[in-house]
Write a structure and sequence with these properties.
This protein is 87% helix and 0% strand. The longest helix has 76 residues. It is globular, with a radius of gyration of 21 Å.
Length: 439
C-alpha cells in the first residue's frame, strides 16, 4: 500500500513537473525555430552567442527557486511553519535585489557583453538587442521560477505546471505574431520570450490570492545567512547553468575557428534540441524533489528510497526513447531549422546531433543523482557532479578531442564528460548517498 501511494505521488509530481520544465525550455527552443525561419543563419548565430547570458541569468533564478523551495519543503516536513516562512522571505528578498542588479547590467552593458561573447559586425545588433531586453526582465524570470518552486512544494504541482506551460505556449504564439505578421525581427523574438515569465507569475499568484499558500512573506524573518543557506542548497542547479554557459562560449569559439558562422548555427540547433532533452530529465528530478525533501524532514527513509528508484527507472526509459528519436529522425528534424536549405549547415548539424545525443542516458543519471543529493541537503556532492560534467571535464575534453578529431571532437566531448561524471556520481552515491546515510 505504501509503495502504491508513493508511485501515485511520484506520477502526480513528475508528469506535471516535466510539462513545466519542457515548457520553460521552449523559451529558447521556440526562439530558435522562429528565428531560423525568419532571420536565417545570422539570426541563429546571434541567438547562440546570447545563450550563455541566458544560462547565467536563468541559473541564478533556478538556484534561488530550487534552494529556497527545497529548504521550505524540509521545514514543512518537520512541521516548522515559522522556519519555512523564513526560507521563503529570505529567498524572495535576496533574489529580488540580485535580479535588479542583473537588469541594470543588461540595460547599461549589453553592447559590451555582446562583443565579449563573440558577436561580429554581421550579428552584433541582433545579439545586443536580445541581451538588453532579456536581462532587463530578470526579476520576472526570478519570480516565475521561485514562485513555481514554492507552489509545487506547497502541495500544488498542477498550478505550478499550468503557470509554466501557459507562459511557454504564449511564447510560441507571440514569437510567431511578433516575428512574422508584425515583422519585428530579433526584438519581437525576445519580447515574446520575456512576456512568458510575466504571464506565469500572474497565474502563480492565484495560489496566494486564493489564500491556499502555507508560506508567507514576513519581512522581520529575513536573515542573510538563511538566504545564503538556500542559495547553497540550490548551488547544483546554478553550477549546471554556469557550466552550460561556459561550454557554449568555448564551443562557439572552437567551432568558429573550424566551421565559421555556419558551424555555430549548426551547434545552435543541436544545443537547443539538447535543452529540451535535458529539460525532460530536469522535470523528473524536480518532480521527485518535493517528495524526497519532505520525506527527509519526516525521516521516512523507505519513501525516499522508493521515490529515487522510480525516478531513475523513468529517467532511463525516457532517455532511451529520446536517443531513438534523434538517431532515427535526425535529418528531418534538422531540416526544420534549415530555412535557407544550406547543405553545409544540414551536414554539420546531422553529424553533430548523432554524436552529441549518445550522452543522454548518462546525463539523465547525473541529473537525477545530483538533484537527489540537493534534495537531502548534501550540497557538496551535488555541486561536484555539476562541476565535473561541465567546467572540469567538458571543457578540457572539448579542447583535447577537437585537437585530435576536429569538429567531431567537439560533439564527442559531451558524451565523454557525461560518461566520466556518471562513474564518479555512482561512486559518490554508493559512498555517501545511500538511504541508510540519510536518516
Amino acid at each position: 500500500m505504501k509503495n502504491n501511494k508513493c508511485f501515485k505521488e511520484f506520477i502526480k509530481y513528475t508528469l506535471l513537473s516535466i510539462l513545466g520544465t519542457v515548457g520553460v525550455s521552449c523559451y529558447i527552443f521556440t526562439d530558435t525555430l522562429f528565428i531560423s525561419m525568419g532571420m536565417g543563419e545570422k539570426g541563429l548565430t546571434a541567438l547562440n552567442l546570447a545563450i550563455p547570458a541566458y544560462s547565467i541569468m536563468y541559473g541564478f533564478c533556478v538556484m534561488m527557486g530550487v534552494g529556497g523551495s527545497t529548504r521550505y519543503a524540509i521545514a514543512r516536513g518537520e512541521g516548522n511553519e515559522s522556519k519555512g516562512n523564513g526560507f521563503f522571505t529570505s529567498t524572495m528578498l535576496l533574489g529580488l535585489v540580485m535580479s535588479v542588479i542583473f537588469s541594470l547590467g543588461g540595460i547599461f552593458f549589453s553592447d559590451r557583453l555582446a562583443r565579449l561573447l563573440g558577436a561580429n559586425d554581421d550579428v552584433f545588433e541582433m545579439t545586443n538587442i536580445y541581451l538588453k531586453i532579456l536581462l532587463s526582465f530578470t526579476p520576472a524570470f526570478f519570480l516565475s521560477n521561485t514562485l513555481a518552486g514554492f507552489v509545487r512544494n506547497d502541495g500544488n504541482p498542477r498550478l505550478a505546471m499550468a503557470a509554466t506551460l501557459t507562459g511557454s505556449l504564449s511564447n510560441v504564439l507571440l514569437d510567431y505574431v511578433f516575428i512574422f505578421p508584425l515583422n519585428m525581427g530579433m526584438t519581437g523574438a525576445i519580447l515574446a520570450t520575456v512576456a512568458s515569465p510575466v504571464i506565469s507569475v500572474c497565474i502563480l499568484l492565484v495560489h496566494i490570492i486564493g489564500r491556499k499558500n502555507n508560506f508567507h512573506l514576513h519581512i522581520k524573518s529575513f536573515k542573510l545567512y538563511t538566504a545564503a543557506s538556500c542559495a547553497v542548497t540550490g548551488t547544483s542547479a546554478f553550477v549546471n547553468e554556469i557550466a552550460s554557459a561556459a561550454v557554449v562560449i568555448v564551443f562557439n569559439m572552437l567551432i568558429l575557428n573550424i566551421a565559421g558562422n555556419t558551424g555555430v548555427a549548426a551547434y545552435g540547433v543541436i544545443a537547443n534540441l539538447a535543452i529540451v532533452a535535458v529539460a525532460i530529465m530536469s522535470g523528473i528530478s524536480q518532480g521527485i524533489q518535493p517528495i524526497i525533501s519532505r520525506s527527509c524532514g519526516e525521516g521516512n527513509v523507505s519513501y525516499i528510497k522508493q521515490t529515487l528508484k522510480y525516478g531513475l527507472i523513468f529517467a532511463f526509459v525516457t532517455a532511451a526513447v529520446i536517443c531513438a528519436v534523434f538517431m532515427l529522425f535526425t535529418e528531418p528534424v534538422t531540416k526544420i531549422f534549415n530555412s535557407e536549405n544550406s547543405a553545409e549547415l544540414q551536414e554539420t548539424a546531422v553529424n553533430g546531433m548523432r554524436l552529441y545525443f549518445t550522452a543522454v542516458p548518462f546525463a539523465a543519471f547525473n541529473i537525477i543523482i545530483g538533484n537527489y543529493f540537493a534534495a537531502i541537503k548534501k550540497a557538496v556532492p551535488a555541486a561536484v557532479i555539476s562541476l565535473l560534467k561541465g567546467l572540469l571535464l567538458l571543457i578540457p575534453f572539448a579542447f583535447m578531442l577537437t585537437a585530435m578529431l576536429g569538429i567531431n571532437g567537439v560533439w564527442l566531448s559531451y558524451p565523454a564528460a557525461e560518461i566520466t561524471t556518471a562513474i564518479v556520481s555512482l561512486f559518490m552515491f554508493l559512498k555517501t548517498g545511500r538511504v541508510k546515510n540519510v536518516e
